[in-house]
Amino acid sequence: MALHVFQASAVLAAGLILYVLLFVGRRGRNMPDGPPTLPIIGNLHQLPKQKVYLQFTEWAKKYGGMYTLKLGPATAVVLSDRRIVKQLLDKRSAISSERPTNEVSQHIITEGDHLLWMNNTPAWRLMRKLIHQDLTEKMCENDHHKIQQAESVQMLHDMLKSPDDWMRHLKRFSNSVITSIVYGIRSPSIDSTYIIRLNALLEKWARINEFGATPPVDIFPFLKLIPERFLGNWVTRATVVHDEMHALYNKLRETVEKRREAMGPMPTVVDRLLDQQEKTGLTTHQITLLSGVTIKGGSDTSASVLSSFMQAMVTNPHIVKKAQAEIDAVVGDDRVPNWSDYESLPYVAAIVKESHRWRPVAPLSVPHALSEDEWVDGKLIPKGTTIFLNVWGLHHDESKFPNHDVFDPDHYKGRTLLASEYANSADYENRDHYGYGNGRRLCPGIHLADRNLFHAISKILWAFNIEKATDPKTGKPVEPDTSMVTGYREGLTACAYEFPVKLTVRSPAKRKTILKEHDDAKANVFPDYEKTAIF
């Protein structure tokens, strides 16, 4: 009897091993083509540790705008074709809006309540609806323009006072706009304790989300059984981010709650979430994470686009001159540009779009996943497949952008509509860029972000000459490193490493205007957002 049991077990084990060798890591029938696979690991051995989107783009040249990768037992499809992106992620967004499992970001760090990583559940749809109600185009036009104008004026004022800190001023600007809207609390200084803590948190979040920063536990769950000390202490590192994130976001929410007790509610995102909590059923943790994730998204993405813009201006002085000529013809010296100038400044609007395209903040976006089998162009994409939107490949498509690595606003000549209008166009060729995602996962802050970028870019070009800094040792100009490989941070979002820039105000009249408008903002706008101190 024991012998028969042993023989049966041996046969089952042999069959399992044979199955694994024959099928795990192999591409299924009728699926899109892709690079050759190896048993068990599939294409994992071919993925670079950094800048994987560059390899994805090279494979797209060989295997087309839709191809399959096997990541061990898991399946991934990479999209670099505008038509297929529209078909699968926009038109079929009902089944392509899931997220692949993310043990580190979604489960350990954010306890399942991160809007970006949540699956297409009723809770996700409710949270997205609630945050969207405060970031609509109408809200941006009627309510948020005042703080955007004031904060971008302070950005100019800060650059006047300490131009070498220009990158920190960009971060303060983008953060203060979204924090004012979400909490009713602005970020007045680059040296604020809150700003320092948030920037440190964003850096750690980016690092833990780097490709290869943690073991592939989502692909091979058995790795979770191995003591973490043998795998780089990945749980401990993720827990540190969890603790710092919750400490900061809880502090912000608690600050609003104390202000409400003392002074009553304000027209902010968190106030409305708290007012509606009984009706919506959101937990305190969900409110905390929803508001915190919103300020995170509104802080680092806009600042990263603006950093790329600065790189492009330093290396393309002819573009600076052309943009300044357009601005000077419309604005003059006695006021700074504002949102009402948008339609009169098409070249500046094109610079905003080109800043997105040239060095995309999220070169692979955030991956989608399918909730059902889907057929595209006669090819099967199975349920559960991870969908990578190859934003880098789309933005650097040589057939659409022949000089794709050159920063050229004329790529968008005549394309003056806002990003939301192009994203919602039925014609996939109309899409200007993919910086805000797709389908049901389209960034809810798209209206606010587009306006933030125009405010900042138009004002910087109006106010300053932007030139290469001089190396104090050699006396030679410092060339910014514009390479995505060596000049940009790796992670879920890409941001240029800090580099020196020479900023000089263009005229005494412009300096006077900046100071005057900053005084006006301090007197008439900022007090509404300075009723509560965070730290």
TrEMBL record:
Heme binds at C443. The chain crosses the membrane at residues 6-24. InterPro entries: Cyt_P450, Cyt_P450_E_grp-I, Cyt_P450_sf, Cytochrome_P450_fung. Its cofactor is heme. GO terms for molecular function: heme binding; iron ion binding; monooxygenase activity; oxidoreductase activity, acting on paired donors, with incorporation or reduction of molecular oxygen. It comes from the Eukaryota. CDD domains: CYP64-like. Keywords: Heme, Iron, Membrane, Metal-binding, Monooxygenase, Oxidoreductase, Transmembrane, Transmembrane helix. Gene3D superfamilies: Cytochrome P450. Belongs to the cytochrome P450 family. PANTHER family: CYTOCHROME P450 MONOOXYGENASE ALNH-RELATED, P450, PUTATIVE (EUROFUNG)-RELATED-RELATED. This is Cytochrome P450.
